[in-house]
Specification:
With 163 residues, the chain is mainly alpha-helical. It is built from 6 helices and no strands.
Length: 163
């Protein structure tokens, strides 16, 4: 929700020297409570699901080493990177849900969304929803590849037989 006690709600978005008078006007004229209500109606970040079966995450995973141990290390590093990205995307999404128009940069508000406060919130939430869904899809694919690689490594290890 909007914090009515905070006079400088966009301070965490852009430094004062970059603030646009046009963006300040759009923020002042926007129906803050309607925007807060709209943004609050979106699902929580933890409820956004991975993309469906139509999505192929391999292009996001990229080339991997052929040697299983090196491949496993690369997969784990990529997984850590996507997990970090998911955390950042969820944090940004929740920030927009909680702060509404105050969380939108001046350039996004005035240029990308043409001064339409509700459209700026909607577009920003849709974009972050897509990012979160992508991150979750790639993480699921990476988890599956890590499991398969671990099984491959286990199968390649010499087996001791007891007679």
């Amino acid at each position: 929700m909007i914090d009515d006690n905070n006079d400088d709600e966009s301070a965490d978005i852009e430094p004062a020297r970059y603030r646009s008078p046009e963006a300040a006007r759009v923020r002042a004229e926007a129906d803050q409570h309607a925007i807060a209500y709209y943004c609050g109606g979106w699902l929580g970040a933890d409820q956004i699901e991975a993309r469906g079966s139509h999505f192929d995450p391999d292009s996001f995973i990229g080339a991997l080493p052929r040697e299983p141990a090196a491949r496993l290390d690369a997969l784990r590093a990529k997984r850590d990177s996507y997990a970090d990205q998911l955390d950042m995307d969820c944090t940004r999404y929740e920030h927009i849900r909680a702060r509404g128009i105050a969380a939108i940069s001046d350039s996004d508000l005035t240029i990308a969304y043409g001064g339409d406060a509700l459209l700026a919130c909607r577009g920003s939430l849709q974009l972050k929803t897509a990012h979160i869904s992508l991150d979750r899809s790639v993480l699921a694919a990476l988890d599956a590849k890590i499991e398969a690689c671990m099984r491959e490594i286990e199968r390649a290890q010499p087996q001791l037989a007891l007679f």
